[in-house]
Specification:
The complex is a heterodimer.
Chain A: H1 2-12, E1 33-34, E2 55-57, E3 63-64, E4 73-78, H2 85-101, H3 115-142, E5 144-148, E6 151-158, E7 162-169, E8 173-179, H4 183-188, E9 190-197, E10 204-210, H5 212-222, E11 228-229
Antiparallel strand pairs in A: 1-11, 2-4, 4-5, 5-6, 6-7, 8-9, 9-10
Chain B: H1 5-10, H2 13-46, E1 47-48, H3 50-77
Helix pairs in contact in B: 2-3
The chains are: A alpha+beta, B mainly alpha.
Amino acid sequence: MPDRDQRFNDQQAPQPVSPPRQEGYVIERPSIVMPLEQTPNVAHAKNKLHLFSEFCEYPDSVSFHDQEPGEEVLLFLRKSQIANIHWIVTTILLLVLPLGLLLVPKSALPFLLPQGLLVVIWFFYYLVVVTYAFVNFVIWYYNAALITNKRIVDIDFHQLIYKDIAETKLGLVQDVSYRQQSVVESLFDFGHVLVQTAGTIDNFEFDSLPHPERVEEIVNSLVGKGRVYVP
Amino acid sequence: MSPNPTLLFQASSTFLLIKIGIEALLVLFFIFLLVVLKQLSTMNTIITQQQLFNFLRVFTFLLLAATLALFLLTLVLV
C-alpha cells in the first residue's frame, strides 16, 4: 500500500516552527502577521494605480529611473487629496467670477467692447484658468514618494521647473515617526511622516501623506523594527 | 447725433494695444505650455506611469491646440 505509507509519512513530517516572539512586541492585527523581511518570496497581487491615487500598496506599472533589478515598489504615495483643496476652490471661484459681470447692466459700462474682442478675452481667460488647475494637478501628480524593498525615494517637483530627487537605503533609516496635528488631519487621516536617517544624511519629511500610521508601520517593518500585515 | 463709443474705441490706439497685448500673451502662453510638455516628459523618465502620462500629454496637446486656435481667432475676429 504505497499510498497509505506515503500518507503516513506526510502526517509524520515535521511541522514548520514559528519564529520566536520578540519581547515587547504587540500584534495589532489578528490575521496573518509576520515581519516583512521574513516573508516568503511570493508575487503579491498588484493594485491598479489610477489618475488620482494617493496611496497604493504594490502598485502596478510604476517604475523609476534607477530602479535596480529585483527592486520592487511596495508603496506609492502622493500628498492627500485634501492638500489640493486650496487650488480646487480657487479654480472654481475663478470659473464663476466672470459670470458676475453678466449681472452688471450695460448702461453702467463706459463703453462696450467689440464682440470679437470679448469672445477672445473670455476664451483666453478660461484657458488660463484651466491651465492653472492643470499645472497644479501635474505638480501634485509628480510629487511622489516611493518605498521599495531596498530604499525610500522622495521626488519633489515644484513650480514646474524645480525638482529634487532624494533617496536613502533602508539600512540607513534609524527611526520613523508620524504626526497628525489638527482636527482636519485626524478626520481625513493624513499627516506628516518623518524618516530619520543615520549620520549626515538629511532626514526625509513627507507632508500631508495619507494613512501616516500605515506608512510608519510599513517602513518600520522594512527596517526590522516592526511587523506588517501581509495580504 | 453722438458717435458710437464702441466704434470710437475700436478705432483708437488703445484697442490696437489691447489686441497686440493679447497676441503677445497667447504666444507666451503657448511657450509656457511647451515647457509644461517638456517637464512632463522629463518627469516621466524619473517616475514612469505610462498610461497616465499619455493622458496628461494628450491634455497638454489639447491646451496647445486651443491656444493656437485662439491666436488665429484673434487675428480673424479682432
